[in-house]
Amino acid sequence: MKPDSLSYTVYLEVRKKILSHQIPSGTRLIEGDWARKMDVSRTAVREALTRLLGEHLLVMGERGGYYVKSITADNVREIREIREILEVGALRLAIEKITDEEVAVLEKICDDFTNMVEGGYLNGACEADMKFHESILLFSRNERLMEAYHSSNIPLFHLKLEEVYSHMDDYELTDKEHRRILEAIRERDFKAGKKALKAHLYRGEMAALNME
Amino acid sequence: MKPDSLSYTVYLEVRKKILSHQIPSGTRLIEGDWARKMDVSRTAVREALTRLLGEHLLVMGERGGYYVKSITADNVREIREIREILEVGALRLAIEKITDEEVAVLEKICDDFTNMVEGGYLNGACEADMKFHESILLFSRNERLMEAYHSSNIPLFHLKLEEVYSHMDDYELTDKEHRRILEAIRERDFKAGKKALKAHLYRGEMAALNME
DNA sequence: GCACTAAATTTTGTATACAAAAATACGAAT
DNA sequence: ATTCGTATTTTTGTATACAAAATTTAGTGC
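Above: the input entities. Below: the structure tokens describing the complete assembly.
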């Protein structure tokens, strides 16, 4: 599946739509429909869907058919658990390995978040939020850890939080918490960072659960 | 990809061969060759390979082509890092949630390991070794955590350890270490379990590195 | 109205065809 | 012998065809 292939185009498109909840979870994806919609052969669509199956974004129905994996209330717990495990793990590694330039990158992301919230760019702020967490993974310098993070549908869960940011309070809290984590990283203080990160994730789960 | 489909058959076959190192890492998989070998159409093979791509067992070459993901020396570090993160995380959850029956299952696996080593069934012992670790993941009751474990190619790395078990000492050490972890679980003592598990994994990495 | 069956339709699984791209083999020129 | 270019073969990406399976629709008797 080369980056310039039709299958890859379809793969990216469907993936994006799933991750951004433009396709509701539980939806059945009809190969033919997507082939028509994207004007490619069913073969190309099938290949894209099969890959997404491998990435656990889709599941097979009992009697065949691709369905968007649905998120149950139980999954919120699962995702918080694994998210904490992976992010705290990444934090430990990142604190060992991070350079001053990279700390500056994190700070920049925090600033971007602040500015976008002030400017009313809430989707942008949400992106900066995700980026903050993904950057910590990146700075842990462990390819597999990043893969695990992505293939755990964490980004999916994260985007759902858009809906959570109902009050301006939430944005301000997020901002404060990110900066607390950042400071711990700057000081190479794993214990403080772990504490701040866990509190941050815990609040996120609570916010997500309250709105179900 | 229904369980009775040809694609699924091919998927299972290729997957098994990769995980058991019957196909060396870095090998290019030619669609047509597998189609002939398994007597199915190239379409079915392609579908199987695409799924394995999604599962990160295969990667694409620069100019197309499916290759078995190779394990570099650097990966050994990466895998040990993520393995520790995931297994320690799973251990914490498992200790919270495990039932007495499940503790008994773990004990049975330890006994099986002992018996197979004594009987000279070294491959079987290796399987029991894997099973011990996977069971802890299972008892953590987090589907995504298990998925992350599997999609990090940890089982692949693990099987490579077959080669490591050169001396009978290694088996005895493994046995002792497993039982130490088991005891900690039985006592619901996370700190002791974590310590034993980390030591166990660390020794595993050392053994793996020595033989490169 | 409801349960059940049969027919019609949709959807999937698989094979095949073929052009484009990549890899390989071969030979000439230096 | 090495490098280059060209011809040949292999391999891939995509479309299409078609039978099998699943789903929907329609009709029937109750």
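Note for the figure: Residues 30-32, 42, 46, 64-65 of chain B lie near DNA strand D (CB under 10 Å from a C1').
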